Amino acid sequence: MSTPNTDPSDRRPPVTERVTAALEALNDEFVAVAAERPDTATGHSDRAYRLAFICARRAGWWRLLLARPHRREISLLFARAVFHTAAAQQSQARFWRDAAADWSARAERRPTSDAAGAMSNHHDLGIAS
Fold first, then answer.
1. b (16+ CB within 10 A) / e for 2-37
2. What would the pLDDT profile of 81-110 be if each residue is shown by its tens digit?
3. Angstrom distance (rounded) from CA 28 to CA 58
4. Which of 2, 45, 75, 87 has the highest count of CB atoms within 10 angstroms of its CB?
5. How far apart are CA 90 and CA 78, in angstroms?
C-alpha cells in the first residue's frame, strides 16, 4: 500500500521500511539485554532501565506509523493493531521502569514496592509486611 516517493531529493526508504528496520534492530537489542544475567541488585536495575528504554523506543516507532502523513499508507485494521502494539510497548516500558526502581531500592536497602512481589525486600530489611 506504500505510495512511491516522488521527491527526488528525498532518498530515504518509505516510512514503513524505516520502522521495520528500526524495530528489528530494537528487538535484537532487547534480546541481547534480556539475556544478561546480572549478579547484583544494581546490575538488575541497570538492565531493567535499559529494557524500559528499548520498549519506549519501540512504542515510539510504532506510534510513528499513526502520524497523520503516514496513516494513508496503512489500512484501518493495521492502524488499530499498531495502536494496540504501541500501547503494549508503553506498558512494557512502564513495567521495566517499575522493576528498575524496585531493584534500585533493593540496592540502596530501601523498601521496595508491595507490587514487586518476589523482589520485595521487606523481609531482608526486617520490615513486617
1. eeeeeeeeeeeeebbeebeebbeebeebbeebeeee
2. 999 999 999 999 999 999 999 999 988 888
3. 12
4. 45
5. 18
